[in-house]
Write a structure and sequence with these properties.
The relative contact order is 0.11. It is globular and about 80 Å long. α8 runs antiparallel to α9 (about 345-355). The strands form 3 sheets. The chain has a 4-stranded mixed sheet, with helices on one face. It has a 4-stranded antiparallel sheet with strand order 2-3-7-6, with no helix packed on it. The model has no long low-confidence stretch (mean pLDDT about 95). About 50% of the residues lie in helices and about 15% in strands. It has 10 helices and 10 strands. The chain is an alpha+beta fold.
Length: about 375
Protein backbone atom coordinates (compact mmCIF):
# COMPACT_ATOMS: atom_id res chain seq x y z
CA UNK A 1 0.00 0.00 0.00
CA UNK A 2 2.92 2.35 -0.61
CA UNK A 3 1.92 5.82 -1.72
CA UNK A 4 2.81 6.79 -5.27
CA UNK A 5 4.38 10.05 -4.12
CA UNK A 6 6.80 8.41 -1.68
CA UNK A 7 10.51 8.22 -2.35
CA UNK A 8 12.17 4.83 -2.55
CA UNK A 9 13.85 5.58 0.76
CA UNK A 10 10.48 6.12 2.39
CA UNK A 11 9.06 2.99 0.79
CA UNK A 12 11.99 1.08 2.28
CA UNK A 13 11.27 2.67 5.67
CA UNK A 14 7.63 1.63 5.38
CA UNK A 15 8.62 -1.98 4.62
CA UNK A 16 11.14 -2.11 7.47
CA UNK A 17 8.66 -0.75 10.04
CA UNK A 18 5.96 -3.12 8.75
CA UNK A 19 8.34 -6.00 9.44
CA UNK A 20 8.96 -4.70 12.97
CA UNK A 21 5.22 -4.39 13.56
CA UNK A 22 4.63 -7.92 12.28
CA UNK A 23 7.11 -9.27 14.84
CA UNK A 24 5.22 -7.63 17.71
CA UNK A 25 1.59 -7.78 16.55
CA UNK A 26 -1.64 -7.09 18.42
CA UNK A 27 -0.54 -8.45 21.78
CA UNK A 28 2.54 -6.25 21.86
CA UNK A 29 4.47 -5.10 24.91
CA UNK A 30 4.49 -1.30 24.68
CA UNK A 31 7.83 -0.79 26.45
CA UNK A 32 9.59 -3.49 24.42
CA UNK A 33 8.31 -2.16 21.10
CA UNK A 34 9.15 1.44 22.08
CA UNK A 35 12.69 0.37 22.95
CA UNK A 36 13.22 -1.61 19.75
CA UNK A 37 11.74 1.10 17.54
CA UNK A 38 14.04 3.61 19.22
CA UNK A 39 17.15 1.48 18.74
CA UNK A 40 16.32 1.12 15.05
CA UNK A 41 16.09 4.90 14.75
CA UNK A 42 12.37 5.04 14.04
CA UNK A 43 11.20 7.13 17.02
CA UNK A 44 13.51 10.02 16.22
CA UNK A 45 13.38 9.80 12.45
CA UNK A 46 11.97 13.36 12.31
CA UNK A 47 14.52 14.96 14.65
CA UNK A 48 17.74 16.70 13.55
CA UNK A 49 20.77 14.50 12.91
CA UNK A 50 22.93 16.87 14.97
CA UNK A 51 20.98 15.77 18.07
CA UNK A 52 20.78 12.04 17.36
CA UNK A 53 17.73 12.03 15.11
CA UNK A 54 17.24 10.72 11.59
CA UNK A 55 17.11 14.12 9.93
CA UNK A 56 13.75 13.42 8.30
CA UNK A 57 10.39 15.00 8.93
CA UNK A 58 6.73 14.32 9.52
CA UNK A 59 6.56 12.36 6.28
CA UNK A 60 8.86 9.74 7.76
CA UNK A 61 7.47 9.77 11.30
CA UNK A 62 3.90 9.35 10.06
CA UNK A 63 5.00 6.31 8.06
CA UNK A 64 6.39 4.73 11.23
CA UNK A 65 3.17 5.19 13.21
CA UNK A 66 0.91 4.15 10.33
CA UNK A 67 2.79 0.92 9.72
CA UNK A 68 2.92 0.01 13.40
CA UNK A 69 -0.82 0.68 13.58
CA UNK A 70 -1.52 -1.46 10.54
CA UNK A 71 0.26 -4.33 12.35
CA UNK A 72 -1.99 -3.83 15.39
CA UNK A 73 0.66 -2.23 17.62
CA UNK A 74 0.42 1.57 17.40
CA UNK A 75 2.48 3.65 19.82
CA UNK A 76 0.26 6.53 20.91
CA UNK A 77 3.12 8.41 22.59
CA UNK A 78 4.74 8.84 19.17
CA UNK A 79 2.06 11.44 18.53
CA UNK A 80 3.22 13.34 21.58
CA UNK A 81 6.89 12.78 22.39
CA UNK A 82 8.81 13.01 19.09
CA UNK A 83 6.08 14.65 16.98
CA UNK A 84 4.80 17.49 19.18
CA UNK A 85 7.44 17.98 21.86
CA UNK A 86 10.45 16.99 19.78
CA UNK A 87 9.38 19.21 16.91
CA UNK A 88 8.72 22.24 19.12
CA UNK A 89 12.06 21.92 20.93
CA UNK A 90 13.94 21.31 17.66
CA UNK A 91 12.41 24.40 16.05
CA UNK A 92 12.26 26.83 18.95
CA UNK A 93 14.26 25.49 21.88
CA UNK A 94 17.53 26.91 23.16
CA UNK A 95 20.74 25.08 22.43
CA UNK A 96 20.73 23.81 26.02
CA UNK A 97 17.16 22.50 25.69
CA UNK A 98 17.99 20.76 22.42
CA UNK A 99 21.04 19.07 23.92
CA UNK A 100 19.15 18.09 27.07
CA UNK A 101 16.09 16.59 25.38
CA UNK A 102 16.43 15.76 21.70
CA UNK A 103 18.96 12.89 21.90
CA UNK A 104 16.85 11.16 24.56
CA UNK A 105 13.60 11.71 22.68
CA UNK A 106 15.28 10.29 19.59
CA UNK A 107 16.72 7.15 21.21
CA UNK A 108 13.70 6.52 23.42
CA UNK A 109 15.47 6.99 26.74
CA UNK A 110 13.44 10.13 27.39
CA UNK A 111 9.72 10.63 26.85
CA UNK A 112 7.76 13.86 27.02
CA UNK A 113 4.00 14.36 27.41
CA UNK A 114 2.03 17.38 26.17
CA UNK A 115 -0.44 19.33 28.26
CA UNK A 116 -2.86 21.67 26.52
CA UNK A 117 -6.42 20.44 27.15
CA UNK A 118 -8.26 21.95 30.11
CA UNK A 119 -11.55 21.09 31.83
CA UNK A 120 -13.24 24.33 30.73
CA UNK A 121 -11.31 25.15 27.57
CA UNK A 122 -10.76 21.88 25.74
CA UNK A 123 -7.93 22.62 23.31
CA UNK A 124 -9.02 26.24 22.76
CA UNK A 125 -5.73 28.09 23.24
CA UNK A 126 -7.63 31.38 23.65
CA UNK A 127 -9.46 30.13 26.75
CA UNK A 128 -6.60 28.39 28.53
CA UNK A 129 -6.53 29.45 32.17
CA UNK A 130 -3.23 27.89 33.24
CA UNK A 131 -1.19 30.97 33.96
CA UNK A 132 2.53 31.62 34.21
CA UNK A 133 3.82 34.66 36.06
CA UNK A 134 7.36 35.82 36.50
CA UNK A 135 8.97 35.23 39.88
CA UNK A 136 12.43 36.70 40.03
CA UNK A 137 14.45 34.90 37.38
CA UNK A 138 11.91 32.10 37.06
CA UNK A 139 8.23 31.36 36.65
CA UNK A 140 5.28 30.18 38.74
CA UNK A 141 2.58 28.10 37.04
CA UNK A 142 -0.95 27.53 38.28
CA UNK A 143 -3.77 25.68 36.55
CA UNK A 144 -5.44 22.44 35.59
CA UNK A 145 -5.11 20.08 32.61
CA UNK A 146 -7.18 17.06 31.65
CA UNK A 147 -6.89 14.04 29.31
CA UNK A 148 -3.11 14.21 29.20
CA UNK A 149 -1.64 10.97 27.85
CA UNK A 150 1.27 9.08 29.38
CA UNK A 151 2.26 11.50 32.14
CA UNK A 152 3.23 8.58 34.35
CA UNK A 153 5.80 7.31 31.84
CA UNK A 154 6.99 10.74 30.72
CA UNK A 155 10.10 12.38 32.14
CA UNK A 156 8.52 15.80 31.65
CA UNK A 157 5.39 17.42 30.27
CA UNK A 158 5.39 20.31 27.82
CA UNK A 159 2.73 22.53 29.39
CA UNK A 160 0.82 25.21 27.50
CA UNK A 161 0.26 28.15 29.81
CA UNK A 162 -0.50 31.83 29.33
CA UNK A 163 1.46 34.88 30.36
CA UNK A 164 0.23 38.43 30.64
CA UNK A 165 1.32 40.81 27.89
CA UNK A 166 2.79 43.83 29.68
CA UNK A 167 1.63 46.18 26.91
CA UNK A 168 -1.95 45.00 26.40
CA UNK A 169 -2.73 43.11 29.58
CA UNK A 170 -4.07 40.22 27.50
CA UNK A 171 -2.92 36.66 27.99
CA UNK A 172 -0.73 34.96 25.40
CA UNK A 173 0.27 31.29 25.19
CA UNK A 174 3.69 30.09 26.25
CA UNK A 175 5.26 26.64 26.48
CA UNK A 176 7.09 25.30 29.53
CA UNK A 177 9.00 22.09 30.21
CA UNK A 178 7.82 20.71 33.57
CA UNK A 179 9.80 17.71 34.88
CA UNK A 180 7.65 14.92 36.32
CA UNK A 181 8.78 15.28 39.95
CA UNK A 182 8.55 19.08 40.15
CA UNK A 183 6.95 20.13 43.48
CA UNK A 184 3.32 21.20 43.04
CA UNK A 185 2.94 19.21 39.82
CA UNK A 186 0.37 16.54 40.64
CA UNK A 187 -1.42 13.96 38.52
CA UNK A 188 -4.48 11.78 39.03
CA UNK A 189 -5.43 8.99 36.67
CA UNK A 190 -8.75 9.23 34.83
CA UNK A 191 -10.78 6.03 34.89
CA UNK A 192 -11.34 5.40 31.19
CA UNK A 193 -13.77 2.89 29.69
CA UNK A 194 -11.33 2.67 26.78
CA UNK A 195 -8.52 0.21 27.49
CA UNK A 196 -5.17 1.39 26.16
CA UNK A 197 -1.53 0.93 27.06
CA UNK A 198 -1.17 4.67 27.65
CA UNK A 199 -3.11 6.06 30.60
CA UNK A 200 -4.95 9.39 30.77
CA UNK A 201 -4.42 11.91 33.55
CA UNK A 202 -5.76 15.07 35.07
CA UNK A 203 -3.00 17.45 36.13
CA UNK A 204 -2.92 20.05 38.88
CA UNK A 205 -0.26 22.75 38.88
CA UNK A 206 -0.23 24.51 42.24
CA UNK A 207 2.46 27.19 42.50
CA UNK A 208 4.83 25.15 40.35
CA UNK A 209 8.15 27.00 40.39
CA UNK A 210 10.28 26.71 37.28
CA UNK A 211 13.65 28.18 36.34
CA UNK A 212 13.87 30.66 33.47
CA UNK A 213 15.26 28.01 31.15
CA UNK A 214 12.00 26.04 31.37
CA UNK A 215 10.40 28.45 28.90
CA UNK A 216 10.63 27.07 25.36
CA UNK A 217 11.40 29.60 22.66
CA UNK A 218 10.34 33.23 22.55
CA UNK A 219 7.76 34.43 25.05
CA UNK A 220 6.23 36.63 22.33
CA UNK A 221 5.97 33.86 19.72
CA UNK A 222 3.99 31.38 21.80
CA UNK A 223 1.05 31.02 19.40
CA UNK A 224 3.34 30.32 16.45
CA UNK A 225 5.25 27.75 18.49
CA UNK A 226 2.03 26.16 19.72
CA UNK A 227 0.67 25.61 16.23
CA UNK A 228 4.06 24.32 15.09
CA UNK A 229 3.35 21.46 17.51
CA UNK A 230 -0.36 21.06 16.78
CA UNK A 231 0.07 20.48 13.04
CA UNK A 232 2.32 17.43 13.62
CA UNK A 233 -0.20 16.23 16.22
CA UNK A 234 -2.97 16.23 13.59
CA UNK A 235 -0.75 14.55 10.99
CA UNK A 236 0.19 11.82 13.46
CA UNK A 237 -3.41 11.35 14.58
CA UNK A 238 -4.24 10.76 10.92
CA UNK A 239 -1.43 8.18 10.74
CA UNK A 240 -2.76 6.51 13.88
CA UNK A 241 -6.27 6.30 12.41
CA UNK A 242 -5.15 5.10 8.98
CA UNK A 243 -3.04 2.37 10.55
CA UNK A 244 -5.92 1.21 12.72
CA UNK A 245 -8.29 1.23 9.75
CA UNK A 246 -5.85 -0.78 7.66
CA UNK A 247 -5.46 -3.33 10.46
CA UNK A 248 -9.23 -3.81 10.73
CA UNK A 249 -9.67 -3.96 6.96
CA UNK A 250 -6.95 -6.59 6.58
CA UNK A 251 -8.65 -8.76 9.21
CA UNK A 252 -11.95 -8.42 7.38
CA UNK A 253 -10.48 -9.19 3.98
CA UNK A 254 -8.75 -12.29 5.31
CA UNK A 255 -11.98 -13.49 6.91
CA UNK A 256 -14.08 -12.72 3.82
CA UNK A 257 -11.60 -14.64 1.66
CA UNK A 258 -11.59 -17.78 3.82
CA UNK A 259 -15.05 -17.88 5.40
CA UNK A 260 -17.29 -19.97 3.16
CA UNK A 261 -21.07 -20.10 3.27
CA UNK A 262 -22.88 -22.12 0.62
CA UNK A 263 -20.73 -22.32 -2.51
CA UNK A 264 -18.17 -19.53 -2.30
CA UNK A 265 -16.32 -17.36 0.26
CA UNK A 266 -18.47 -14.53 1.63
CA UNK A 267 -16.10 -12.01 0.02
CA UNK A 268 -17.45 -13.14 -3.33
CA UNK A 269 -20.76 -11.43 -2.54
CA UNK A 270 -20.93 -7.76 -3.48
CA UNK A 271 -22.78 -6.89 -0.28
CA UNK A 272 -19.59 -7.88 1.57
CA UNK A 273 -16.99 -6.92 -1.05
CA UNK A 274 -18.17 -3.45 -2.02
CA UNK A 275 -18.21 -1.89 1.47
CA UNK A 276 -14.69 -3.24 2.06
CA UNK A 277 -13.58 -1.77 -1.26
CA UNK A 278 -15.09 1.59 -0.27
CA UNK A 279 -13.30 1.48 3.09
CA UNK A 280 -10.00 0.82 1.28
CA UNK A 281 -10.56 3.74 -1.09
CA UNK A 282 -11.35 6.13 1.76
CA UNK A 283 -8.29 5.09 3.75
CA UNK A 284 -6.10 5.63 0.66
CA UNK A 285 -7.61 9.08 0.07
CA UNK A 286 -7.03 10.03 3.70
CA UNK A 287 -3.42 8.95 3.40
CA UNK A 288 -2.92 11.18 0.36
CA UNK A 289 -4.08 14.20 2.36
CA UNK A 290 -1.85 13.14 5.25
CA UNK A 291 1.10 12.95 2.86
CA UNK A 292 0.25 16.39 1.51
CA UNK A 293 0.10 17.80 5.05
CA UNK A 294 3.43 16.23 5.96
CA UNK A 295 5.07 17.49 2.77
CA UNK A 296 3.83 21.05 3.37
CA UNK A 297 4.92 20.98 7.00
CA UNK A 298 8.36 19.59 6.19
CA UNK A 299 8.74 22.31 3.53
CA UNK A 300 8.10 24.99 6.16
CA UNK A 301 4.62 26.00 4.97
CA UNK A 302 2.89 26.17 8.35
CA UNK A 303 -0.26 27.84 7.03
CA UNK A 304 -0.74 25.37 4.16
CA UNK A 305 0.10 22.50 6.47
CA UNK A 306 -2.50 23.68 8.98
CA UNK A 307 -5.34 23.34 6.50
CA UNK A 308 -4.10 20.01 5.12
CA UNK A 309 -3.35 18.55 8.57
CA UNK A 310 -6.85 19.35 9.80
CA UNK A 311 -8.38 17.84 6.66
CA UNK A 312 -6.17 14.76 6.93
CA UNK A 313 -7.13 14.20 10.56
CA UNK A 314 -10.83 14.56 9.71
CA UNK A 315 -10.68 12.27 6.68
CA UNK A 316 -8.58 9.63 8.44
CA UNK A 317 -10.86 9.50 11.47
CA UNK A 318 -13.96 9.06 9.35
CA UNK A 319 -12.27 6.41 7.19
CA UNK A 320 -11.03 4.56 10.27
CA UNK A 321 -14.44 4.43 11.95
CA UNK A 322 -16.04 3.21 8.73
CA UNK A 323 -13.36 0.55 8.17
CA UNK A 324 -13.64 -0.77 11.73
CA UNK A 325 -17.44 -0.85 11.62
CA UNK A 326 -17.41 -2.68 8.29
CA UNK A 327 -14.75 -5.12 9.51
CA UNK A 328 -16.80 -6.04 12.57
CA UNK A 329 -19.92 -6.35 10.43
CA UNK A 330 -18.08 -8.62 8.00
CA UNK A 331 -17.11 -11.02 10.78
CA UNK A 332 -20.58 -10.98 12.32
CA UNK A 333 -20.54 -12.51 15.80
CA UNK A 334 -16.84 -13.30 15.44
CA UNK A 335 -16.21 -9.57 15.15
CA UNK A 336 -17.17 -9.21 18.80
CA UNK A 337 -14.94 -11.99 20.14
CA UNK A 338 -11.60 -11.52 21.84
CA UNK A 339 -10.09 -14.06 19.43
CA UNK A 340 -10.36 -11.75 16.44
CA UNK A 341 -9.40 -8.55 18.29
CA UNK A 342 -11.73 -6.17 16.48
CA UNK A 343 -14.38 -5.34 19.08
CA UNK A 344 -12.05 -3.12 21.14
CA UNK A 345 -11.37 -1.06 18.02
CA UNK A 346 -15.01 0.03 17.89
CA UNK A 347 -14.28 2.31 20.84
CA UNK A 348 -10.67 3.08 19.94
CA UNK A 349 -11.58 4.22 16.42
CA UNK A 350 -13.73 7.00 17.84
CA UNK A 351 -10.75 8.53 19.61
CA UNK A 352 -9.52 9.94 16.31
CA UNK A 353 -12.87 11.68 15.82
CA UNK A 354 -12.69 13.28 19.25
CA UNK A 355 -9.01 13.94 19.89
CA UNK A 356 -6.92 16.02 19.74
CA UNK A 357 -9.66 18.22 18.30
CA UNK A 358 -13.24 17.28 17.46
CA UNK A 359 -14.39 16.91 13.89
CA UNK A 360 -16.84 19.77 14.47
CA UNK A 361 -13.98 22.15 15.31
CA UNK A 362 -12.19 21.03 12.15
CA UNK A 363 -15.33 21.81 10.16
CA UNK A 364 -15.35 25.23 11.84
CA UNK A 365 -11.72 25.71 10.80
CA UNK A 366 -12.38 24.73 7.18
CA UNK A 367 -15.57 26.84 7.09
CA UNK A 368 -13.88 30.10 7.99
CA UNK A 369 -10.24 29.51 7.06
CA UNK A 370 -10.67 27.68 3.75
CA UNK A 371 -14.08 28.87 2.61
CA UNK A 372 -14.11 32.36 4.15
CA UNK A 373 -17.46 31.91 5.88
CA UNK A 374 -18.21 33.95 9.02
CA UNK A 375 -17.10 32.50 12.34
CA UNK A 376 -19.82 31.14 14.56
CA UNK A 377 -17.87 31.75 17.76
Amino acid sequence: MSGVIESQENKDLRAAVAALGARHGRGFDRAALWSEAAKLGYLGVNLPEAYGGGGGGMAELSIVLEELGSAGCPLLMMVVSPAICGTVIARFGTEEQKRAWLPGLADGTLTMAFGITEPDAGSNSHRITTTARRDGDGWILNGRKVFISGVDIADATLIVGRTEDARTGSLKPCLFIVPRDTPGFQRSRIDMELHAAEKQFELALDDVRLPAESLVGDEDAGLLQLFAGLNPERIMTAAFAIGMGRYALAKAVDYATTRQVWKLPIGGHQAIAHPLAQAHIELELARLMMQKAAALYDAGDDIGAGEAANMAKYAAAEACVKAVDQAVHTLGGNGLTREYGLASLITAARVARIAPVSREMILNYVSHQSLGLPKSY
